[in-house]
Amino acid sequence: MKAICTICVSLAFWVGPVSAQVFNDLQLALEPVHYELDLTVDYDAEQILGNVQLRVRNRSLKTIHEIPLLLYRLMAVNSVRDSRGRALPVTQRVVAFEDFGKRQVNYVTVSLDQQLEPSDTATIELVYEGYLLGYAETGWRYVKDRVDSSFTIIRNDGLAFPLVGVPSLRANRSAGFPTFTYLARITVPASLTVANGGRLIERSVNDGDATFVYQSVKPSWRMDFAVADYRIIEHGQTRVVYFADDSVGAAGVMNAIQSTMRLYAKWFGPLKEEAGLTVIEIPDGWGSQADVTTIIQTAPAFKDPRGYSRVYHELSHLWNVTPTDRPSPRWNEGLASFLAYLTAEELDGRTVLNERAALRMRQLRETFAEQPHYRETPLIDYGTAQLTDLSYRVGMVSRRRTVQPRRRRLLPRVRRLRSHDQRLRNTCKSCHYHRLDSILRRLDLHHQVV
Fold first, then answer.
1. Are 392 and 338 within 8 A, CB to CB?
2. Which residues pair with 282 in a beta bridge?
3. pTM for the complete prediction?
4. What local confidence, expressed as pLDDT, does residue 427 receive?
5. pLDDT value for 400
6. Residue 396 phi/psi, 5° resolution?
7. Mean pLDDT of residues grouped by 10 in the chain (450 residues)?
8. What pLDDT does 286 receive?
């Protein structure tokens, strides 16, 4: 892919925080609607070469003149054009996030030649290229994304393609999860496989390279393209994509998926839409994620049946309702953690729920002793306070108290848990608005699980 440089592109290699509080209180007015990616992974140069067509919508009540984008800090935009092929002015500079100074990005702003009215859409085409080295050094240890023939992943977390956003965690999270469709062409050496949860439209080979074309099955909030020497097994609408050495583990994961889907359908009812499910194995420590049709799952679940709880966790997200709070306090993570251990007891015969709840409770007490002000934060505000890591633990132990796992009464109690979880989202009268220390006293967890 040949990079096209235009005089309207400027890049300032200035690294540092932008002016104080420029973005933290900003409300993002644009949302992505559709991506068309054409990416080449150049393993010799250890670079990604990209051509991206991006359609955005103005969801605000004001006119918009610029499109703000985030790209990995070692990538540069070479040109930007509108839907008619006309060059657009663009500025870009490497900056640190206002509220997370360790994270640096290439902050790109594209100036539109016509203002974008409320509810209208605009399409731009960007040509870019550069290196991908992840964000593990910032504390986001799972974002080890890089160009490596043994394993490469292209996803939102590493900013391997431009995302609508600004250099502020708070502003981006306040915008909520987007939903967009995509069509992606990913070119890699023919010896490798590109895995994605979309529909594989085509695989073509030319001069030693293979191009995989994927189309989204349903609107998604993220895109994940994993590249490795993969193998694939299928059962109905379920695919498991795995490393060559993990064939036995992949068969076990497939069986676990089928059993869990039946169990959750019994507990919560069938999914409204079954668009198929793809589970993609990734190396340990690279961070499992779930989307509407895709689970990227770390290797331990393929190595040891005790790791199936990670699969149970991600599968439970398929039954989540759409969060209405912006930014989301991510209570669904606590619920998923609880259900993972409950499912392990139900399917695997392992007694783990009380033990894990006790461990999480001890961890919470230690955390609150070190950070007493956390007790003053209402749970509904975990998103705005950037305390969503606590949601896994607080949500898990509170669900443990909501449902006592007595076998003869398990099913109706779990169904009530889902109803209870929905009420927490839709009302302002439950424990979301109580201080955490009050909630812990109400749950009486000291006597229940410690």
1. no
2. 298
3. 0.79
4. 40
5. 55
6. -65, -50
7. 40 44 80 97 98 96 96 98 96 95 97 95 98 95 96 97 94 85 98 97 97 95 96 94 95 94 90 82 93 89 86 85 71 84 89 85 87 81 76 71 49 53 43 46 41
8. 96
Q: Tell me the three-class secondary structure of the chain, residue by residue.
A: CCCCCCCCEEEECCCCECCCCCCCCCCCCEEEEEEEEEEEEECCCCEEEEEEEEEEEECCCCCEEEEEEEEECCEEEEEEEECCCCECCEEEEEEEECCEEEEEEEEEEEEEEEEECCCCEEEEEEEEEEECCCCHHHCCCCCCCCCCCCCEEEEHHHCCCCEECCCCHHHHHHCCCCCEEEEEEEEEECCCEEECCCEEEEEEEECCEEEEEEECCCCECCCEEEEECEEEEEECCEEEEEEHHHHHHHHHHHHHHHHHHHHHHHHHCCCCCCCCEEEEEECCCCCCEECCCEEEEECHHHHCHHHHHHHHHHHHHHHCCCCCCCCCCCHHHHHHHHHHHHHHHHHHCCCCHHHHHHHHHHHHHHHHHHCHHHHHCCHHHCCCCCCHHHHHHHHHHHHHHHCCCCHHHHHHHHHHHHHHHHHHHHCCCCHHHCCHHHHHHHHCHHHHHC
pLDDT at 305: 86
Structure tokens at 242: 């795995």
